[in-house]
Amino acid sequence: MATNRRLLLVRRPHGEPVPDDFRLVEEAVPAPPRNGFVIRNHYASLDPAQRGWMDDAPSYMPPIALGSAVRATTVGIVHTSDNPDFRPGQWVLGMNALEDYSPMTPGGFTMAIDVSRVASPSHFLSSMGAVGLTAYFGLLEVAKPEANETLVVSGAAGAVGSVVGQIGKIMGCRVIGIAGGAAKCRRLIKDYGFDAAIDYKGKSVPELAAEIALAAPAGADIVFENVGGNVMDAELLNLARKARIVLCGLISEYNSPDKIGIRNLWQVLAREAVLHGYLVTDFVPRFAEAGTVMARWMAEGKLRMDEDIQVGLENAYPAFMRLFSGANTGKLILKIA
Amino acid sequence: MATNRRLLLVRRPHGEPVPDDFRLVEEAVPAPPRNGFVIRNHYASLDPAQRGWMDDAPSYMPPIALGSAVRATTVGIVHTSDNPDFRPGQWVLGMNALEDYSPMTPGGFTMAIDVSRVASPSHFLSSMGAVGLTAYFGLLEVAKPEANETLVVSGAAGAVGSVVGQIGKIMGCRVIGIAGGAAKCRRLIKDYGFDAAIDYKGKSVPELAAEIALAAPAGADIVFENVGGNVMDAELLNLARKARIVLCGLISEYNSPDKIGIRNLWQVLAREAVLHGYLVTDFVPRFAEAGTVMARWMAEGKLRMDEDIQVGLENAYPAFMRLFSGANTGKLILKIA
After folding, report:
1. Helix and strand tally (H, E) in chain A?
2. Given a cut of 90, is residue A157 above it in pLDDT?
3. How many alpha carbons lie under 13 Å from residue A160 in its C-beta half-sphere?
4. What is the structure's pLDDT at B248?
5. Which one, A32, A152, A336, B312, has least CB within 10 Å?
6. Does domain B3-126+306-335 have CATH number 3.90.180.10?
7. ipTM score here?
8. Which chain B residue is nearest to residue A258, measuring alpha carbons?
9. Taking CB atoms and an 8 Å cutoff, what residues of chain A touch B261?
């Protein structure tokens, strides 16, 4: 009889998560909830946001309860069902957890997906999923880029950042990416077509600010922020007047119990910039429409999204930590089955 | 023969300004520039922004050059003129300096003012001037308050904050002020009609955040930020979803060479808040229109603006420091003549 392996959060991480914060358990496969169903998870998205959900702090979602499985977006196949709209064999996307089997109900983020038109169902966690569309709506609907504007993207080699930069190029922007290490910077230019790439590693805020100034002498019209900390402080010293900042993530801070904070907020005032706290949730009803545009750009060779697929629920912890060590290249996904 | 006393900036302050950063000199009264004029300054505005201009850092205005007089908004009377539109005896407002006599040219912030309709010409540096109108446009045009919204104002007993809170009440908001000390908090309630007042002194960020939460259980729809630092971090823990933050000043940081920074920026993302870096300059063409509204509210007893008038150019340094010690009550103005 099949069992359900589940990765539980058993202790709130203090700073960087350690293996003892989690426990892999085996339980019985659940029965479908009333009017719901159970899916066999095949792929799970590993995202920086999950680190935030592990803290007991006010956020846009409740913290992951201690003793419950680590929340994750997954795609899988309906295994058993009490709902005629979700028959066994149907592929489904939803907000579930790092586990073999997830009970689900319709509504919310739950949606049936057609995997026949994609090379891999995992694409619904990358280019066709919330991550690719976070880039799409954050840049196009929040920052609203115009041709010839200068766009600075941090975390530029990451899943969101690499797509933001490529869409920026499609829109005619001059795109400057900030990433960690020479290899990632080479990929920004070679694989993603950025105009300039800056390696933040080992640089002070003034040093990094000076490099950004060289690449963007008239300042950034748009900053797409995924990192925070010193990287953001250096960007803030290079704002064009009335710059738009899309605050999409702060990955440098998620594991810091003593956050260093943003010291150059004065620049937001002095440049009359606007900083938008951004979640993609408002745009979920437009995902299908945007997914079509993304698919077209990919077919035309204008957009690529790399996936870093790690294998096995038993490897979830080291796979997740690749997000923070900077080891991952492209969208990090855990293959469960 | 008259001489021109001038307060020069002779050294950039490191942190809190000290007397040796300045030197009071006596020079000859200047001749009017071509097509310009010279005014005898009567009142000078002392503002937190001047501290920023003393630093050699990128900002919305160039730093005050070492060896030149400290930039200040002043009102005075035309003394000598080479311009028929500004005859001797005419009152004028402009961006000048802490000095007895200032050479001026038309344009920019220079404007002739009609002091016959105000109790004191100093009002053009407070309620009728940039400070009162900074509150007016920042709240009404940037935050756009609606009735029954919750407005949290920091630096609430200050020149800008006290007006923001009063206009918030006129607009039907629930207004919570944060100020330093019991006496100021009493004034917020008694003199300015705030709904609640919170004393930030001696409180940690969690303690202050808990007090704000008690006063604003559903969170702040609008934060009007004049202070920054720990006060702002506590406010950020109390944002309503899609809150608007008007970033008008960061007085807690102006004298800090090692800024503590904002650690709770994550909340801006999690609450999908928008933070607007705000300068009043865009609204200068609408000053006359807004001044009329402000004057009407004052005549109707709905709005008051206190002035803290210190006397004598020779007292400019201790007068200026009242801004940072929290000693000033109302708009701080230096009477020069």
Report:
1. 9, 15
2. yes
3. 30
4. 96
5. B312
6. yes
7. 0.88
8. B263
9. 260-263, 265
Both tokens of B225, joined, read 């930020």
The two tokens of residue A300 are 């035309």
The predicted-structure confidence for B159-205, as pLDDT tens digits, reads as follows 899 999 999 999 999 999 999 999 999 999 999 999 999 999 999 99
- What are the extents of the domains in chain A? 3-126+306-335, 130-281
B113 close to B93: Cβ distance less than 8 angstroms: yes
Runs of H (alpha helix) within chain A: 48-53, 130-137, 159-170, 182-190, 205-215, 229-236, 266-270, 287-299, 316-325
Contacts of A263 in chain B (CB under 8 A): 259-261
Across the interface, whether the CB atoms of A271 and B52 are under 8 A apart is answered no
pLDDT, one tens digit per residue, over A31-80 is: 999 999 999 999 999 998 899 999 987 778 899 999 999 999 999 999 99
* Helix axes of B205-215 and B229-236: crossing angle, nearest 10 degrees: 50
Residue A9, helix vs strand vs coil: strand
Report which DSSP code applies to B322: H
CB atoms within 10 A of CB A31: 11
B200-221: average pLDDT: 97
Contacts of B223 in chain A (CB under 8 A): none
Record the pTM.
Answer: 0.88
Q: What is the mean pLDDT of residues A238-250?
A: 97
Q: To the nearest whole angstrom, how far is the Cα of B267 from the nearest Cα of chain A?
A: 7
Contact A60 B272 (CB under 8 A): yes
Q: Please state which CATH class domain A130-281 belongs to.
A: alpha beta
